[in-house]
Design goal:
Strand content: under 5%
Helix content: over 70%
Structural class: mainly alpha
Radius of gyration: 21 Å
Oligomer: single chain
Number of helices: 14
Largest sheet: none
Order of helices and strands: HHHHHHHHHHHHHH
Shape: globular
């Protein structure tokens, strides 16, 4: 039997309450800390483990659990038979990405200088990350060109089929070019004086003019998009105000590829949004694992359960060995690698149209 309108309204209201509680909680703590201690809400610093920080960590976990519990309900109660299983290639890709994350954590614990070598400017991680995002931009641009050949029926079709994908393609291009400072080290041009004077690294890019703010916005924003939105997909898909944009909801396969990003949070662990994103990612992976188990998808359940364990253990190890890093921002380069993998995966799914579907309309 289909949901009645009051039932659907109550579900939507629960989502709004949980999301509002999370946002208000993050904002309230950040404002209080800035007022009481002078802590900038987007700072990068070594992780602290005082009694206050443990209490705040608990608060972040509880808020994240509340949000995740609300978003997990459709996965665990109503859509178990309506979710298309991940195929073997997706499971293999998720396993491979998780293995890369585990090896990265092991390198930090075993050989911090090698960890630093990978994270250096203009080295392999930076270029691979930029390549993933730029190829993703190409996929999105090709999707736009393919869609533009067909007629559009009204502004809504133009918005969803043309304007939003163009915006995504432009954003991807901006991220990729910013990552490599717009080819400055390739072409060898000098940074204009006006930018060099404001840029923290005297490079030709804009994100290093206010690095802390841009990093927090990028890490938190991509985390919401690549990890939290896939968890929310069943709850939002049939909500009229959101269903129009359902083509731009990443699927759980993308979340599996992106989830390792939260592990590399040492320099930003003291920020409430980053803590909450980490806990929510953990709960999301557990939700996907339980859903797969109920559907009898053993390999998929093992994948998501393994990623959940990786997030929990990996984050603990990164926090423990973080003080041994040669440079505080080293972990961020690894984080950006997994962000770029997730962004690439979303763009590829969008272009090829092969994303595993979320729940179809609830069956009678």
């Amino acid at each position: 039997m289909l949901d009645t309108k009051p039932d659907a309204t109550s579900k939507h209201m629960a989502i709004l309450v949980a999301a509002s509680a999370a946002l208000i909680g993050m904002g309230a703590i950040s404002i209080c800390e800035m007022s009481a201690f002078g802590w900038h809400p987007a700072r990068e610093e070594p992780a602290d483990f005082s009694a206050y920080h443990f209490a705040r960590m608990l608060f972040s976990m509880l808020l994240s659990a509340f949000l995740a519990a609300v978003l997990a309900r459709p996965w665990l109660h109503r859509v178990a038979d309506d979710v298309t299983a991940l195929d073997p290639t997706e499971i293999r890709n998720g396993t491979l990405t998780a293995a890369v994350a585990a090896i990265s954590v092991a390198i930090l614990a075993w050989n911090p200088p090698l960890f630093h070598w990978f994270a250096r400017e203009d080295n392999i991680l930076e270029w691979v990350s930029a390549l993933f995002v730029l190829v993703g931009a190409a996929f999105l641009a090709l999707a736009v060109l393919r869609r533009a050949r067909k007629p559009f029926d009204g502004f809504g079709a133009i918005l969803v089929g043309l304007l939003i994908p163009v915006g995504f393609a432009g954003l991807y291009f901006l991220i990729g070019m910013e990552e490599i400072s717009w080819g400055q080290r390739i072409f060898g041009f000098e940074t204009p004086d006006g930018i060099a004077a404001r840029n923290w690294q005297s490079e030709f890019n804009f994100h290093n003019i206010h690095t802390d703010i841009s990093e927090l916005a990028y890490y938190f924003g991509t985390g919401l998009f690549l990890i939290v939105l896939p968890l929310a997909r069943p709850a939002l898909r049939h909500w009229k105000i959101a269903s129009t944009f359902s083509d731009f909801f990443p699927n759980r396969a993308v979340a599996a590829l992106s989830a390792p990003m939260v592990i590399f949070s040492y320099g930003h662990w003291s920020l409430v949004p980053i803590q909450m994103l980490t806990f929510t990612a953990l709960f999301a992976m557990l939700t996907f694992a339980l859903s797969a188990r109920r559907r009898g998808e053993r390999a998929e359940a093992m994948l998501f359960a393994g990623i959940a364990v990786l997030i929990a253990v990996g984050q603990i190890l990164v926090l423990y060995f973080g003080p041994h890093m040669l440079d505080l921002p080293d972990a961020t380069e690894f984080r950006e690698l997994f962000i770029s993998i997730g962004l690439f995966a979303f763009a590829a799914y969008y272009y090829f149209g092969t994303a595993p579907d979320g729940p179809t309309p609830e069956r009678a």
